[in-house]
From TrEMBL:
The keyword Ribonucleoprotein does not apply. Pfam families: Aldedh. Keywords: Oxidoreductase. It comes from Pseudocalidococcus azoricus BACA0444. PANTHER family: ALDEHYDE DEHYDROGENASE-RELATED. This is Aminobutyraldehyde dehydrogenase. It is an enzyme of class 1 (oxidoreductase). Belongs to the aldehyde dehydrogenase family. GO terms for molecular function: aminobutyraldehyde dehydrogenase (NAD+) activity.
């Protein structure tokens, strides 16, 4: 269906019945959905409607992919320095609107203000700046005469239009993790934020327009998985799909992408173990475990979910962890002293409660459960199970809430075996003062990141990504940049001869 984007474009954001309306970025315009449908966005801590965003469909997706396809030849042939400049300008634009982004992210995702203002937003901007630099660093094999009489060289080329699908747990960070390396490498992007948390992504779209990012280089389309996600995944011109979310949806996307042999980059679920060895600093381990368990209300694919403590210190650790869990301050996300906010949605709260109910029904001991404030909001309290069988659902499945299991183990080898007895492999930590044990356990753990004596820190320069059913493809670092490129071998004949020495093996006789 031919659609005139100009006829749909309006200035952003407009107010209708006092509810701000945000619009999608397609090509050079901020637009509503072609069908004119809107979706309400809720603050998870108050359950109030805070905004409306376009509810797009396959027609909007097609327009966005076409815009990205049209932008690709010019963007991909800019010099790395020119692309770097645009990304740096975008980072400066995000800095300019940092206060607004912090407010939007906090109220849209239900995150405590101190987490967003000290973590999510400055880290996202830092990551964008990193990729502005990485755009200028092309690494790989040196050019040379690998075969006599020929010069071989590798070109690192962009892939084309990237369809990026982000989750709701870290909306601005995930948007940047997808946009920045892809654009740095010369691709163009169509981003679909999660339907619950699109506001900071749509703001990035406004900022991209304001800083003059060339039309179509970045496009942002809002809506649900079936209406927007799948049309993007199966669109013939989307040559790679970058997805962060559940393992189940990742498998579906991989299956759909296989039909057109498109590349996939999948950052999926996690079920991180935290191993406390007998010689560990128990106070440090307990504090690290509390931060790792309750960060972002446990809605973090690297969150601590299975704590394995060598038996001599099991009760000491459990007592200290429980004491600290009681100190976690839950409530008003706008207060600087709030440690933990609500879950993202009523659905997620029901999902988490379901895991807890089933664990109790299975006879697993509930050691502690806190309380949540009265009133609205999808709050769920810190919850500690103990001594759960390794094959139980609560030890095997991603809960994505502030729910943790603490089990004793009788040896380092048992800790490693239990930690690895899981289909996921994203992140893990080991706590010990023994350097030999630290190296041994770090090498044995089948996870993409292993921390020693800490849990959670990430940085732009180092890769993040999974083993096993946590997916494949790295985020952050030069490894992420490489994910968004394709290696091309170009081989030059140096002889200039019509009949080469090796031709006889196919045609004619040896010379
Ligand atoms: P999903 O993986 O189903 O959704 C993540 C994103 O993918 C959303 O934007 C979703 O849109 C979209 N999506 C869903 N189905 C498709 C599809 N077939 N094609 C394209 N896009 C699609 O996660 P949920 O939101 O349902 O959360 C469920 C669980 O997933 C959580 O409890 C948690 O365990 C895990 N999860 C893990 C994350 C991680 O960082 N590893 C992040 C988020 C969730 P829509 O919501 O409209 O379906």
């Amino acid at each position: 269906m031919p659609v005139n984007l100009h006829a749909l474009s309006v200035q952003a954001p407009i107010e209708v019945f006092m509810t701000p309306r945000y619009r999608m970025l397609i090509g050079s315009e901020l637009v509503p959905a072609v069908e004119g449908l809107w979706q309400s966005i809720i603050n998870p801590s108050t359950e109030e409607i805070i905004a409306e965003v376009p509810q797009a469909n396959a027609v909007d997706v097609d327009l966005a992919v076409q815009a990205a396809q049209k932008a690709f030849p010019a963007w991909s042939t800019l010099s790395p320095g020119e692309r770097s400049h645009y990304l740096w300008q975008l980072a400066q634009g995000l800095e300019k609107y940092s206060d607004e982004l912090i407010q939007l992210e906090s109220t849209n995702a239900g995150k405590p203000i101190k987490l967003v203002s000290n973590g999510d937003v400055p880290f996202a901007i830092d990551n964008l700046k990193y990729f502005a630099g990485q755009a200028r660093v092309i690494e790989g094999l040196g050019t040379g005469e690998v075969v006599g009489g020929y010069t071989s060289t590798i070109r690192r080329e962009p892939i084309g239009v990237i369809g990026s699908i982000a989750p709701w747990n870290y909306p601005i960070m995930m948007a940047i993790w997808k946009i920045a390396p892809a654009l740095a490498a010369g691709n163009t992007v169509v981003l679909k934020p999660a339907p619950q948390t699109p506001l900071t992504s749509l703001k990035i779209g406004e900022i991209a327009q304001e800083i003059g990012l060339p039309p179509g280089v970045l496009n942002i389309v809002t809506g649900g998985g079936p209406e927007v996600g799948e049309p993007l995944v199966i669109h013939p011109q989307a040559r790679m799909i970058s997805f962060t979310g559940s393992t189940a949806t990742g498998k579906r996307i991989m299956g759909l992408a296989a039909h057109k042999m498109a590349r996939v980059h999948l950052e999926l679920g996690g079920k991180a173990p935290l191993i406390v060895l007998a010689d560990a600093d128990i106070e440090a381990a307990a504090r690290g475990a509390v931060v790792g368990s309750y960060v972002n209300t446990g809605q973090d694919c690297t969150a601590v979910t299975r704590i394995l403590v060598e038996r001599p210190h099991y009760h000491h650790f459990l007592d200290r962890f429980t004491e600290l869990s009681k100190e976690v301050r839950i409530g008003d996300i706008s207060s600087e002293s709030t440690d933990m906010g609500p879950l993202v949605s009523a659905d997620q709260k029901e999902r988490v409660a379901g895991f807890v109910d089933r664990a109790q029904a299975a006879g697993i001991k509930l050691h502690y459960q806190g309380t949540v404030p009265d009133g609205p909001g999808f709050y769920y309290p810190p919850t500690i199970f103990v001594e759960a069988p390794t094959d139980s659902e609560i030890m095997q499945e991603e809960v994505f809430g502030p729910v943790v299991v603490i089990n004793p183990v009788d040896s380092v080898d048992e800790a490693i075996a239990v930690a690895n007895d899981i289909r996921y492999g994203l992140a893990a930590s080991v706590w010990t003062k023994n350097i030999h044990q630290a190296w041994k356990v770090a090498a044995a753990l089948q996870f993409g990141t292993v921390w020693v004596n800490d849990h959670l820190p990430l940085c732009a320069e180092m890769p993040h990504g999974g083993f096993k059913e946590s997916g494949f493809g790295k985020d952050l670092s030069r490894y992420a940049f490489e994910e968004y490129t394709i290696a091309k071998h170009v081989m030059f004949d140096l002889s200039g001869e019509a009949e080469k020495g090796w031709h006889f093996s196919v045609f004619g006789d040896p010379q």
